[in-house]
């Protein structure tokens, strides 16, 4: 689904922050992306999302070379990739339900066609009784689950999660991990960026380890 070939990335005229990355994200796979703070995990996720272009090398997404995708085609490609950001990016003036439904609303779908999907998904992440409240009322863990639901509502082929358990306590982190595992078992490829070794030890999965801009893979 995602393939990197000798990819390097630098910002401006600085030294490369990512160097010679060659790996692939297979269909229906699960992997942790880890490494010390500042190792480049978020930059790598942005390359996978196509919100960054590599300085060199080739990035392929769904069998298409990223450099060949026209700007007008980009939304269709990104629709297949769900993203959970560290800062949630919920809109405070919209309810939990409206935030989760937003990707479908933007696409112009009628609410009658997606209302059940949104409510079922909110029930699945444990927010069925919080769907009509605004984000400022939600706890950090509830905001995180709402962000996860929004990333999943369009049924992505790949889910990228940037430190999705960084703002929650250990019991909730384990609950969120179980949600990601269930998602993976339903057929979605999952990439979780985290520095939480305890969390990774709870599930035997492939590890992509970034260190000083280079990648090591442990299957």
The rounded distance between the terminal residues' Cα atoms is: 18 Å
- Spatial arrangement of strands, main beta sheet: 6-7-8-3-9-10
H-E order: EEEHEEHEHHHEHEHEE
Round the Cα radius of gyration to an integer and report it. Answer: 17 Å
By secondary-structure content and strand pairing, the structural class works out as alpha/beta
Q: How would you describe the shape?
A: globular
Count of β-strands: 10
Flag low-confidence runs.
none
Our estimate of the beta-strand percent is 25-35%
List the helices and strands and how they pair.
Layout: E1 2-10, E2 16-25, E3 30-34, H1 41-49, E4 56-61, E5 64-65, H2 74-78, E6 81-84, H3 96-106, H4 111-124, H5 140-152, E7 158-162, H6 170-185, E8 189-193, H7 197-200, E9 206-211, E10 214-218
Parallel strand pairs: 3-8, 3-9, 6-7, 7-8
Antiparallel strand pairs: 1-2, 1-4, 4-5, 9-10
Task: Report what the structure shows.
It is a single chain. It is globular, with a radius of gyration of 17 Å. 35% of the residues are buried. The chain has a domain at 91-155. The chain starts with a strand and ends with a strand. It has helices spanning 41-49, 74-78, 96-106, 111-124, 140-152, 170-185, 197-200; strands at 2-10, 16-25, 30-34, 56-61, 64-65, 81-84, 158-162, 189-193, 206-211, 214-218. The strands form two sheets. Strands 6-7-8-3-9-10 form a six-stranded mixed β-sheet, sandwiched between helices. A four-stranded antiparallel β-sheet has the order 2-1-4-5, with helices on one face. Helix 3 (96-106) packs across helix 4 (111-124) and helix 3 (96-106) runs parallel beside helix 5. The protein has 219 residues and is of the alpha/beta class.
């Amino acid at each position: 689904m995602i393939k990197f070939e000798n990819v390097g990335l630098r910002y401006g005229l600085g030294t490369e922050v990512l160097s010679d990355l060659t790996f692939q994200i297979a269909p229906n796979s699960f992997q942790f992306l880890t490494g010390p703070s500042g190792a480049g995990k978020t930059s790598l996720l942005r390359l996978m999302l196509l919100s960054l272009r590599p300085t060199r090398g080739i990035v392929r997404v769904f069998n298409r070379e990223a450099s060949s995708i026209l700007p007008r085609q980009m939304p269709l490609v990104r629709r297949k990739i769900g993203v959970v950001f560290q800062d949630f990016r919920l809109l405070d003036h919209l309810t939990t339900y409206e935030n989760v439904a937003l990707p479908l609303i933007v696409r112009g779908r009628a609410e009658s066609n997606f209302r059940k999907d949104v409510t079922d998904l909110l029930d699945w992440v444990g927010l069925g009784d919080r769907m009509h409240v605004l984000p400022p009322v939600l706890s950090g863990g509830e905001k995180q689950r709402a962000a996860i639901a929004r990333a999943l509502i369009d049924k992505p082929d790949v889910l990228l999660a940037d430190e999705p358990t960084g703002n929650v306590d250990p019991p909730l982190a384990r609950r969120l991990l179980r949600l990601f595992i269930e998602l993976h078992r339903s057929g979605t490829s999952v990439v979780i960026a985290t520095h939480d070794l305890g969390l990774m030890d709870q599930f035997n999965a492939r590890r992509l380890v970034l260190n000083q801009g280079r990648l090591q893979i442990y299957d």
